[in-house]
Amino acid sequence: MGVLKSMALWFDSGVTTEPVPKEEFWKIEWTRIVPMIFMHIACIAVIWVGWSPIAVCVAVGMYVIRMFAITGIYHRYFSHRTFKTSRFMQFVFALLGASAVQRGPLWWAAHHRHHHRHSDEEEDVHSPHQHGFWWSHIGWITTRGAFPTDYKAIPDLVKYRELRFLDRADLLIPVSLATGMFFLGVVLNAIWPALGTSGLQMLTWGFFVSTVCLLHGTCTINSLAHLIGRRRYETADDSRNSFLLALLTMGEGWHNNHHMFPGVTRQGFYWWEIDITYYILRTLSVFGLIWDLRAPPKIAYEHKENPIVQERTSVRDPLNLPTSVHANPAT
């Protein structure tokens, strides 16, 4: 692919929706990943712009808000449809998700559904057991085969024109957010100089530092959540539960729970399994913004007496319970 065509895809990623030939699938698309490389390099600017309490607080706040956008919206809503909402709120949620700079909602959902159907198998492009830790964590995102959106995997979502637009113009919201962060710093410096911030400082901390931390926090679920932690259920992959990863990702660390029952809203099944994303979703449901949150089935709590097994040969359905789940007699 030529450099100019690759650069054009920064602004309209929907041009490439066809599957990439197998011989080109794993090639790194250097031009396409320039924005991601730039975001990492831009974090070094903290040396020159310094820091202020307000800039760090905004960075933390943007991490939390956008981590929820990934976990609660891109993951539990668009990828698994574990609750319902209106078309208007769906669009608002999609805008918030797009601000996380992890591409559009259709791309994210399509890749994640593919992951569930082939988790830790050869076709799973971000399995640490198949491709190694660093490749599963970040390397796969850089490949030519990772960029197209597989519309066939998301027939329930592709019918919405506004979602297709956000998916194609996936840099529009991040660029708008970065611009807003810069002017936030400029305005704060003008009206409240005692805060000690500036446009470049707020841009660096509120956007670049926060976004890079968010990216790697999200990617730990692809990599570390299949390597460290405990396995409550005998799933067909090597997904694990980790308290630390659950804190880092607002609930996604209960990954073994999730891979056993991907169609439920809650991922921390017990009170001590902190799932901040689920608490926020429950709050939104109280105000009627979302509804029909799907609870874990009764069998999810019967693992102590009867180990629950997901057969490796079964087809894993990302929109519902696994098609082959059964409780073995206790031995």
Could you tell me the number of beta strands?
A: 4
SSE class: mainly alpha
Rough shape? globular
Percent helix range? 40-55%
| Individual helix count | 14
How large is the radius of gyration? 20 Å
Distance between the termini: 57 Å
User: Strand share of the residues?
Assistant: under 5%
Description:
With 331 residues, this protein is mostly helical. The chain is 48% helix and 3% strand. The chain is built from 14 helices and four strands. The strands form two sheets. A two-stranded antiparallel sheet has the order 1-2. A two-stranded antiparallel sheet has the order 3-4. Helix 4 runs parallel beside helix 11 and helix 10 (172-191) crosses helix 11 (199-222). The termini are far apart. The model has no long low-confidence stretch (mean pLDDT 89).
Keywords:
single chain, 331 residues, mainly alpha, two-stranded antiparallel ribbon, 48% helix
Topology:
Blueprint: H1 3-11, H2 34-42, H3 46-49, H4 53-79, E1 84-85, H5 87-98, H6 105-117, H7 128-131, H8 133-137, H9 161-168, H10 172-191, H11 199-222, H12 243-248, H13 255-260, H14 276-286, E2 290-291, E3 308-310, E4 325-327
Antiparallel strand pairs: 1-2, 3-4
Helix pairs in contact: 4-5, 4-6, 4-11, 5-9, 10-11
Short overview:
The protein is mainly alpha-helical and 331 residues long. Helix content is 48%, strand content 3%.
